[in-house]
Automatic annotation (TrEMBL):
Family matches, as PROSITE patterns: AA_TRNA_LIGASE_I
InterPro entries given in the database record: aa-tRNA-synth_I_codon-bd_sub2 (IPR020751), aa-tRNA-synth_I_CS (IPR001412), aa_tRNA-synth_I_cd-bd_sf (IPR008925), Glu-tRNA-ligase_bac/mito (IPR004527), Glu/Gln-tRNA-synth (IPR000924), Glu/Gln-tRNA-synth_Ib_cat-dom (IPR020058), GluQ/Sye (IPR049940), GluRS_core (IPR033910)
Reactions listed under catalytic activity: tRNA(Glu) + L-glutamate + ATP = L-glutamyl-tRNA(Glu) + AMP + diphosphate
NCBIfam families: gltX_bact (TIGR00464)
Location within or outside the cell: Mitochondrion; Plastid, Chloroplast
EC number(s) stated in the UniProt entry for this protein: 6.1.1.17
SUPFAM superfamilies: An anticodon-binding domain of class I aminoacyl-tRNA synthetases (SSF48163), Nucleotidylyl transferase (SSF52374)
Uppermost EC category: ligase
Record function comment: Catalyzes the attachment of glutamate to tRNA(Glu) in a two-step reaction: glutamate is first activated by ATP to form Glu-AMP and then transferred to the acceptor end of tRNA(Glu).
Pfam families: tRNA-synt_1c (PF00749)
Name of this chain's protein: Glutamate--tRNA ligase, chloroplastic/mitochondrial
One example GO MF annotation: glutamate-tRNA ligase activity
Keyword terms of this UniProt record: Aminoacyl-tRNA synthetase, ATP-binding, Chloroplast, Ligase, Mitochondrion, Nucleotide-binding, Plastid, Protein biosynthesis, Transit peptide
Source organism per UniProt: Gossypium mustelinum (Cotton)
Length: 560
């Protein structure tokens, strides 16, 4: 039998019976008591995250793991990972590996668990069956549990009768008072049976939840419940109680959907003589319509967000803010800052809405906080892997990242940003409603002077000198045309980039010029070089453009 470590900060149950009988279940005993808890706060903190390997790690599960991790680290305690794989039909090793991979990607390293080991293993429920059977037999011997030989048909009949009487669908207690001879007779016949826990018929149970405050249940709403199935497999609530107790878990931080389970688990703790841990039930993560977040609302798993290009530090930061805050206006936190600031007392009991727009914004904040060398490598590798560039590093990549980074929230956005820079939808822009005023402002004259600067080599000579050469040339070009400000830069932007909007025009044109000279852009990238752009300008029919015509599409659509 696993021993309990003395002095752990568990909540100790005090039983308050109506009369001074000991806490022993007898056949006709009037079971009536209430339960309160007190916390011993002097021993080490041990928390656990216990996922079921039946699918991908949901963002709700990831937040629960994060809160456990932050609580443990902030208290100098241990973060335990336990795999609850008793659902043999749905649990797979592939799902377990995916969950472990997602937790590792988030940076939530566990102190004990699969792949790490520890003093309280094994850490998979499927490997702990002998322990569950041992404690089930102990409960049977003490009278807290009895054998129930009811068939499925009998149980369904009980449920139907309860529904007709508008009563809770609780077990009637048929085998709770059976004579020993009746039990022996069924055992001799080989009748399948379950182990049912005797629940006091009256009274209440109260706990002080660290997030929700005092929570209470009436005992007559639950009925005698199964802890071991007829096939010998233990039931969830029994496994969890035995595991948390024998692993010396001090605080159980989990989703609020587990709150109803606390009643059954507390009764098992008491029956086995185990002190009860502190409980903290975290609110659900909600969709924008305030329903429970599900697949119908889009991506919900950590793996999906990883594949979409989100950074682990951004996911951790955003998940922490779903129901928690440090009391200031600050929303940007590193994992170390979260450990320093986290307090379970600041976790909100109200549901938190998952806002994918804010997550994207936050990812952009973390992306731009990455050291530039690392950011350039990250985006450069993406550009090469997606076939936009033939190289993933070098001066062109660095310059392109520097120019485009403020418009990139996800690494995957960088492909669109670079493709947009390299494209030249000038005809569509000129024929759009937004482009019409620029065409009418003697754009053909600006185009003619620009072509002359290109033909003379003056423009490319300036671009060869970099930003200083470009600025000097633009100033002289403006004086020649007697234009400045918007009346100069808007026509130049349209003619040189093919768009009405975009990043800094000078830097953009210099980068386009370099791309044409270095051969770094892949042939399939749809790149239009500066030389090709000038040939397009030379072929434009300005007379036709100046005539009234229906717009093909807006420039906003084009630039996107």
């Amino acid at each position: 039998m696993a021993a309990l470590v003395a002095g752990t900060p568990w909540m100790r149950i005090r039983v308050i019976p109506e009369f001074a009988s000991p806490f022993i279940f007898r056949r006709h005993f009037r079971r009536n008591f209430s339960v309160r808890a007190s916390i011993d706060s002097d021993a080490p903190v041990r928390v656990r995250f216990a996922p079921s390997p039946t699918g991908n790690l949901h963002v709700g599960g990831a937040r629960t793991a994060l809160f456990n991790y932050l609580f443990a680290r902030s208290k100098g305690g241990k973060f335990v990972l336990r795999i609850e794989d008793t659902d043999l039909e749905r649990s797979t090793r592939e799902s377990e590996e995916a969950v472990l991979r997602d937790l590792a990607w988030l940076g939530l390293d566990w102190d004990e668990g699969p792949g790490v080991g520890g003093d309280y293993g094994p850490y998979r429920q499927s490997e702990r069956n002998s322990m569950y059977k041992q404690y089930a037999e102990k409960l049977l011997e003490s009278g807290h549990v009895y054998r129930c030989f009811c068939s499925n048909e009998e149980l369904e009949k009980m449920k139907e009768i309860a529904e007709l009487k508008k009563l809770p669908p609780v077990y009637s207690g048929k085998w709770a008072t059976a004579a020993d001879g009746e039990v022996e007779e069924e055992l001799a016949k080989g009748t399948p049976y379950t182990y049912r826990f005797r629940v006091p018929k009256e009274g209440s149970l109260k706990i002080n939840d660290l997030i929700r405050g005092e929570v209470s249940w009436k005992l007559d709403t639950v009925g005698d419940f199964v802890i071991m199935r007829s096939n010998g497999q233990p039931v969830y609530n029994f496994c969890v109680t035995v595991d948390d107790a024998t692993m010396a878990i001090s605080h159980v931080i989990r989703a609020e959907e587990h709150l109803p389970n606390t009643l059954r688990q507390a009764l098992i703790y008491k029956a086995l003589g185990f002190p009860m841990p502190s409980f903290a039930h975290v609110s659900l993560i909600l969709a924008p319509d305030r329903s429970k977040l599900s697949k119908r609302h889009g991506a919900t798993s950590v793996g999906q967000y990883r594949d979409m290009g989100y950074l682990p530090q951004a996911m951790v930061n955003y998940l922490a803010l779903l129901g928690w805050g440090d009391g200031t206006e600050n929303e940007f936190f590193t994992i170390d800052q979260l450990v320093e600031k986290f307090s379970i007392g600041r976790v909100n009991k109200s549901g938190a809405v998952f806002d994918s727009t804010k997550l994207r914004w936050m990812n952009g904040q973390h992306l731009r906080a990455i050291p530039f060398e690392e950011l350039s490598q990250l985006i450069g590798e993406h550009w090469k892997s997606t076939g936009l560039l033939t190289e993933s590093e070098g001066p062109f990549v660095d310059d392109a990242v520097q120019l485009l980074k403020d418009g990139i929230d996800l690494v995957t956005d960088s492909g669109t940003a670079l493709s947009n820079l390299l494209s030249y939808p000038v005809h569509a822009t000129l024929t759009s409603p937004e482009g019409r005023p620029i065409v009418e402002d003697k754009l053909s004259e600006v185009s003619a002077h620009l072509l002359a600067a290109y033909d003379s080599g003056e423009l490319f000579g300036a671009l060869e000198e970099g930003p200083a050469g470009w600025q000097k040339w633009v100033k002289g070009f403006g004086k020649t045309l007697k234009r400045k400000g918007k009346s100069l830069f808007m026509p130049l932007r349209v003619l040189l980039t093919g768009k009405l909007h975009g990043p800094d025009m000078g830097s953009s044109v210099i980068l386009i010029y370099k791309a044409g000279n270095h051969g770094i852009v892949s042939p399939q990238a749809g790149f239009v070089t500066l030389k090709e752009r000038f040939e397009i300008l030379r072929q434009l029919d300005w007379e036709a453009l100046n005539q009234d015509h229906p717009a093909l599409e807006s420039a906003a659509t084009i630039s996107n």
